[in-house]
């Protein structure tokens, strides 16, 4: 029960980070917002680990994989923050929910796992769900929509790499390295779009970093009490907070097609998780 509470708390917290990102996207480039997300995550995480988890500050046993993991999550964040600057948070997140299906599709190639016809069918159905949301040919198909799907793709790869690292490095160390990798790489690009920020904008970005840090810490602690595969379906709870915040702050509410596509994608994802649990 403790694992479920911690996990649901994480998914209730993280949409606040997205809300701040969308709010600031009308004033600041999504590149600069992404940089701040990583900079402030490291800013808050490093002192926390130094004072309370100093024994976990050991060098990774697989630094190349850690760097690759950080790069894929950074790519997912770039795509997501761009997509929500144009389309609603709910629509962007719905399309990003293809991540578990991407993980299933790539597992035979990267992890050499067997994926049966039933799970392949779930992947295809989930893809159909994304088409229901996008409705190509019926509504405008823009780069933001592609970016939202890109979020799901990169996050699916990120989940595969996380599986490979699960038994290698401490999760808190992984969180810190992921933040450092994202901060360093985004720092290479941010000068191109940099604008001087007001004090209130800096405060909003710092708060965004707190939500990111807190959300991921809650996720890490939830994994201390239950396996990731058992907690994975609870990640869909994020859409509830996402819809509430999107409607309250931006008057965005998903239409019937988005809800229909969301139901199809979530159903496919939950089916995949149930099959994985049976196979373990």
Question: What layout of secondary structure does this protein have?
Answer:
Elements lengths: L1 H23 L5 H23 L10 H22 L4 H8 L2 H12 L6 H18 L8 H23 L5 H23 L5 H24 L5 H4 L6 H13 L5 H24 L1
Helix pairs in contact: 1-9, 1-11, 2-3, 2-8, 2-9, 3-7, 3-8, 4-7, 4-11, 4-12, 5-6, 5-7, 6-12
In short:
It is built from twelve helices and no strands. It is mainly alpha-helical.
What do these coordinates show?
- With 280 residues, the chain is an all-alpha fold.
- It has one domain (2-279).
- It is 78% helix and 0% strand.
- It has twelve helices and no strands.
- The chain has helices at residues 2-24, 30-52, 63-84, 89-96, 99-110, 117-134, 143-165, 171-193, 199-222, 228-231, 238-250, 256-279.
- Helix 2 (30-52) crosses helix 3 and helix 3 (63-84) crosses helix 8 (171-193).
- The longest helix is centred in the last third of the chain and has 24 residues, at 199-222.
- The protein is globular.
- The chain starts with a helix and ends with a helix.
- The mean pLDDT is 85.
What is the overall silhouette?
globular
> What share of the residues does DSSP label as strand, in percent?
under 5%
Number of domains: 1
Tally of helical runs: 12
Number of strands: 0
- Helices and strands, in N-to-C order? HHHHHHHHHHHH
Defining key terms:
280 residues; mainly alpha; 12 helices; 78% helix; 0% strand; globular
């Amino acid at each position: 029960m403790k694992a479920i509470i911690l996990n649901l708390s994480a998914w209730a917290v993280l949409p606040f980070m997205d809300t701040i990102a969308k709010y600031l996207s009308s004033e600041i480039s999504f590149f600069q917002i992404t940089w701040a997300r990583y900079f402030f995550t490291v800013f808050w995480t490093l002192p926390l680990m130094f004072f309370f988890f100093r024994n976990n500050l050991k060098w990774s046993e697989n630094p190349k994989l850690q760097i690759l993991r950080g790069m894929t999550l950074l790519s997912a964040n770039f795509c997501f923050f761009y997509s929500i600057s144009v389309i609603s948070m709910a629509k962007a997140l719905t399309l990003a929910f293809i991540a578990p299906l991407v993980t299933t599709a790539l597992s035979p190639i990267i992890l050499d796992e067997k994926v049966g016809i039933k799970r392949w069918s779930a992947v295809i159905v989930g893809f159909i769900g994304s088409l229901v949301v996008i409705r190509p040919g019926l509504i405008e198909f823009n780069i933001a929509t592609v970016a939202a799907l890109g979020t799901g793709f990169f996050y699916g790869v990120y989940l595969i790499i996380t599986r490979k690292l699960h038994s290698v490095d401490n999760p808190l160390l992984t969180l810190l390295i992921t933040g450092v990798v994202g901060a360093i790489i985004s720092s290479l690009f941010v000068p191109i779009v940099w604008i001087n920020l007001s004090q209130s904008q800096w405060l909003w970005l710092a708060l965004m970093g707190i939500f990111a840090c807190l959300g991921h810490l809650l996720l890490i602690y939830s994994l201390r009490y239950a396996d990731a595969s058992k907690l994975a379906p609870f990640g869909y709870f994020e859409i509830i907070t996402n819809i509430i915040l999107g409607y309250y702050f931006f008057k965005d509410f998903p239409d019937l097609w988005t809800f229909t596509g969301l139901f199809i994608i979530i159903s496919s994802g939950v089916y995949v998780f149930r099959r994985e649990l049976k196979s373990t």
